[in-house]
Amino acid sequence: MAFLKLLISLGIIIAAMALPDENWTDEIQTAVKYSLLSSIKPTHYNIELILPIEEDIYRGESNISIEIYEETQHIELHLANLVVTESTLINENLQESKNNIKKSVYKPMRYSYIHEINSFIIYFNDKILPGNYILNLEFLGKATNNTEGLFRTSYKNEKGNTTWLFATYLQATGARQLFPCWDEPKLEATFTISVKHPQKYTALSNMPIREKYNVENDMRWTHFNTTPSMSPYLVAIAVIDFKTNNTKLDIRDDINSIVKSHFFNYSSMKIWFREEIEYESFAYYVLTFFTVHLELHWHMSSLKMIPKVDYIAIPDFPEKVIETGGLVLYREADIFHKPNDADIMSRAKLEYLISRNMIDEFLHDMPSWFKEGFGSFAFAYTYDKIHDNSRKMDLLVVQNQHESLRLNFYFNRNLLQINKPLEINSLPSSFRYNRAISILRMLQHLITEEVFQHGIKTLLTLKLFRRMTPETFLTTMQNTLNEFGNEHEYNLTEKMDGWMKHKNYPILKVTPDYAGCTNILLENFDSIDSDMYNLWIPITYTTQKNLDFNKTSHRNVVWVKSTQNVLCIDAFRHLKSDGWIIINLQQVGYYRVNYNTENWNKIAKYLNSMEYENIHVLNRAQIIDDAYHFLMTSQIDSSVFWELTNYLSREKDYIVWYPMIKALEYMSSVFPLSDRKASNIKGKIRNILSELLQNIGYNEDINKHYFINCLKQEASKWACILGEPDCHKTATSNLQQHLANRTTNK
């Protein structure tokens, strides 16, 4: 056994035959590319694993149904850190013919392995004709002690005994570490999993258990139902010695009717945890309640290809969460709270962890641009529907849309149509997908919440996701809009197609003309980005005299084509000379707005009055974010920025403060400097923070809204960094109280 461990750790392949001669090996290796040959396609895997918990070496057998489209003398597939001990190819086309029974079995002549790409090649003497075959492989594997492949971990139970746990974590090309396979996400197949394990343990996989029975040596076979067609890396297995919940929650009648009338049932969802854990039902409540609301608002049950989910709480687990279809692993400490820890903030974090992951599980078959974008959007929308005044959608705007605009400035690349692996890996994930969130939100406002929601339900119910492109997505939304009565004959594809493709965002340079029409200059267009010239920009606006920040649907939009460099908008005529204009209501449009100095100063004057809250919170945040961007790109004077931000000493909304906090992070590079300019900047910010903290206080209150505590944390941090005397005094006092009584004063 020790020798086998050494072989596996070195990635050596055991073969019954000799390797081919050098010329043939080199010839084959040169011909092989990073993707496997397209002439062979797997359709079904029948996998059996023998997992003796006390050992990290496991045995496996895989019978893979394959279709061969072209004549060949070798078969190539993936494996990593596995030892193949036996292989056979069976021709299903000839198997039933008694005269050809001997010809139906092909034994390999030799093997080859390309370590760089984990490619395992089986060579045969005879030519293999096109047809259906079964490839049988027997192999040995080694469980790792980290969360990669099949990993093994342990914990001490209340009696001090070591209890072991097996589970899988397969990255996009990680299935090759568990069993030999065609390990490319696009090569989907069905899987039938069977696990042999000690009787006192429970085996779980993607699908429900079909049957289980005990065998010799206190072992048990657990056989699972066949999965839907899916990528190999989605295969999941766990072998645990845990208990599960039997809780039934009291849910109000209207929600319970949804539970009864749709797919959802309590037995399809279980949480598994250590015997020593006192079960706390809040995590189960989140799972139940959020699942019901996802069905209510989005009909996500139509995506549910796997009929159950098992959630496993693992002690001292290094990852917060690992999700595959039907099986989810959590860090125990993140989903089970002690009673005195169950405050509003910690429960909110738990809700996010569980519910956001739940959405990912529903959407795992979606194209990545939609999965990441709509996943974040659906979480914020649904959370706001469940919790009054939670304002997750507002937070989504300042966190994701603002960050997307910042990244767009530095990485002027196509976000939604990236295909090359090197391009994918070179860009931050937030850069690739945050813009998709903004486009979905823009669309929701333009066609109205009701139409957007109905369109998404239609999309999910019709199971269009597997072949969905931005074009088919817009077509579905257009059809939905037409069903609701498209009285303006609004062409959604024409208006939104450019936003799905273009590489940058426009800047609107606005100069109000109080005698005639307001001029808008379109800037920030990349000359090499042809899609930018097909961009329709939705302009929404309000004025100080006729103040209304809710006019965001297409009925209130002035559409401007990007080919029109300078515009004179008649709709803006007759502005009052003493009033401001604000464009891009609630930041629905994915663009920045820069005004002339006169309009900026009018906005600043209004913000510094007692009426500042009349400006929508998202537009107050937009003003801060845009102004800082234009300050850093030398498009506005610093005096304009400081006049706009001076009012923040009275601003108690974390959403508005968020872009200013990001600005402080960028400004912090000058804080260590002692020159006059840096000192003036630090002095301005210190004064704003000092007055703010006098208004809101330093100490957090777990019963207050999450945002106010976030603001207190950030304001205190930056005040202390900038040397605000009261902040240092308060911090010293709190530390002394903590040291005096660490239990009471945490």
Annotation keywords:
746 residues, alpha+beta, eight-stranded mixed sheet, 20 helices, globular, disordered N terminus, signal
Report on this model:
This protein has 746 residues and is of the alpha+beta class. Helices cover 36% and strands 23% of the residues. The protein has 20 helices and 28 strands. An 8-stranded mixed β-sheet has the order 5-4-8-2-1-11-14-13. Strands 16-17-18-20-19 form a 5-stranded mixed β-sheet. The protein is globular and about 90 Å long.
Let me know the average pLDDT.
82
Beta-strand percent range: 15-25%
Helix share, percent: 25-40%
Distance between the termini: 51 Å
Structural class: alpha+beta
The DSSP helix count reads 20
| Rg over C-alpha atoms, rounded to the nearest angstrom | 30 Å
List how many beta strands DSSP finds: 28
Bulk shape = globular
Unreliable segments of 5+ consecutive residues: 1-34, 258-264, 413-427
The major beta sheet can be summarized as:
8 strands, mixed
Pfam family, one: Peptidase_M1_N
Membrane topology: Lipid-anchor; GPI-anchor
Site (Transition state stabilizer): 433
GO molecular function: metalloaminopeptidase activity; peptide binding; zinc ion binding
